Hydroxyethylthiazole kinase
Amino acid sequence: MAFNDILPSIRSAAPLVHCITNYVTVNDVANVLLAAGARPIMADDPEEVEEITELCAGLCLNIGTLNARTIPAMMAAGRHAHALARPIVLDPVGAGASRLRTATARDLLYEVKPTAVRGNISEVRTLAMGTGHSDGVDAAAADAVTEENLAASASFVRAFAAEHRCIAVVTGAIDLLTDGETCYAVRNGRAEMSRVTGTGCQLSALTAAALAAVPVRPLDAALTAVVLMGVAGEIAWSRMGAGDGNAAYRTKIIDAICCMDEEMLMRRAQVEQV
Amino acid sequence: MAFNDILPSIRSAAPLVHCITNYVTVNDVANVLLAAGARPIMADDPEEVEEITELCAGLCLNIGTLNARTIPAMMAAGRHAHALARPIVLDPVGAGASRLRTATARDLLYEVKPTAVRGNISEVRTLAMGTGHSDGVDAAAADAVTEENLAASASFVRAFAAEHRCIAVVTGAIDLLTDGETCYAVRNGRAEMSRVTGTGCQLSALTAAALAAVPVRPLDAALTAVVLMGVAGEIAWSRMGAGDGNAAYRTKIIDAICCMDEEMLMRRAQVEQV
Amino acid sequence: MAFNDILPSIRSAAPLVHCITNYVTVNDVANVLLAAGARPIMADDPEEVEEITELCAGLCLNIGTLNARTIPAMMAAGRHAHALARPIVLDPVGAGASRLRTATARDLLYEVKPTAVRGNISEVRTLAMGTGHSDGVDAAAADAVTEENLAASASFVRAFAAEHRCIAVVTGAIDLLTDGETCYAVRNGRAEMSRVTGTGCQLSALTAAALAAVPVRPLDAALTAVVLMGVAGEIAWSRMGAGDGNAAYRTKIIDAICCMDEEMLMRRAQVEQV
């Protein structure tokens, strides 16, 4: 659990991260990458994605507003990144909400073989089962990871990671992440983060940045991203004033990542092996 | 004019709202829905929009950056929502600015039969007449609703609503909204709101959320959304400090919706029947 | 170097600016135009772009997330604007990063004949040479304009502007802009602006607004936009507090443009003829 060097590594490597991501939260994704010390490039036309991926140290595929043009772009970029052994993060936004999302997320999982999958529990269950609960882009209440079902949830996530030889990152009130063997539960973050659109998308991009900076330690990289996002949510919340709401919180979360020092990050990390 | 229960209803129902909306203001639309207590989902590929609409309690169609892919998506989602009797809001952004926008807005009006239409006066005149003034995405000065032409403007809007059996919401310095019979003039809001891109888009989405939460009282729902947006603009303005400009105002408007309590909302509401 | 009247002219003319721009930074582009006193309209479907351009006083073409639909839209809008003698700004985002970007940027340069080209030095070198260094959407370190190579850099930019009969605006630590004869170096701005996604895109849009307001003095218009963006970055930085990061900075830059008075702008301008 020594991951205190990963954030400094992102800042010194300043990895270029290729994002094919939804247009809802893309600006925050770009700014959070810059906040962490990485550099974003967004490009989603099938004709150029392979060249862009080749320039980059990591790739983030987010199906939040997938369409007939971006699906082949994600597939092409993902296959090329895999062939080049570049780290790839898949964010299966809304898998389970439509057949197109479920099928696309599964096609990407099987064809691209992402280094990491980052989603909520319902999305990851849908990826695993091919069908699942859906409550739009949120996890269904029935699926939620709780203190009561933590061991069973960890088993499920561990099995998923082992089967797909990836890092699985399942976020919610308690975050779980595993390489199929070691599994961590992270209890950072705040419930209010779900009132800001795109904190999950931001975490996926940060995971890609961390993997791009330290590709040889993927679990530590993913753990850093999860803790970073959670601690940023806590620090940002402590900076909220009277009359501030979710829009101010949005700004303050990215600011907290920009201002994060690794000592603060490690001191506030709430990580347990499960 | 008892509409004090609508905002609490949005917060308790937390309706999922499907938005097919422009990429300029989509992040604010998502965050304002979250601020009000609703939940956004954006999806615009024709292959999935019917399934997404089916998951949702309301639909918002905004033609701000319409294109050859999203026009059929809006039509398909709209028809499906209509068949399922789900509330639909149409925001005819820029109708009158191009033949494509005018034709698309009118096609959606006639084919989808939206529950509510929310636009500026020039856009609604264009919808009504098939042609109109345009000053880009703003209302033409010649069309503006003023104290002097209020009665005539109200007659026009009432006739439009009656003909299309919808709630018509025409916003500007004075907002007018009607179900074809009862017509309200709302004098909340501030002129400075037009310096923030997308406050109209946000209002359309809030209208969809209110209709989704309380579909049986569409006029009260639309009135709540109009007053909520206007009062938020006033509260946000009162929180502006030295050096703050339209970007800070943008954040503070959404924050004001997030922090709004219904007592404050009702106390500040400036609603008159006309 | 008397350009103190340009900002007031933007505010009094309130020019409508048609933007075909990337979806990453489009919201900031819209809000920065409003902050400066201009009015944005975004429209990128080939079927409507000529009509929209015709409504507008200026056009901004930004290839940041170009695709198979928007490339012909940019070409059509650009040709139409050229035929109507409307000012056009080309922002060749990421030229050099893929063949598609390089080819599109060059096609637009030769076919549309933009009034101004605004990019980083690597992008403009790629436009000039047809090939170039690329570090994603950032300038390659090898290309950077420095005090040491200032004269040679100015010669290159001047030759580019002369050949293409345009205003060339090359931004970086030192900004250079020229009409092919007079060349200015501007030393406003802060390095931290590169931690906010889209400050370049915002500058391109502001350049289009200034050209639209005062088309007869294109070099003064471009100079105003460059100084305005730089001074805004300085003022915004002076308003940063403890815990503020790149997201707060983003908001404060646009706010500084919104609150800018021309006296302040002229007093802080760091312009030198080179």
Remarks:
- DSSP finds eleven helices and nine strands in chain C.
- The CA atoms of residues 117 and 168 of chain C lie 5 Å apart.
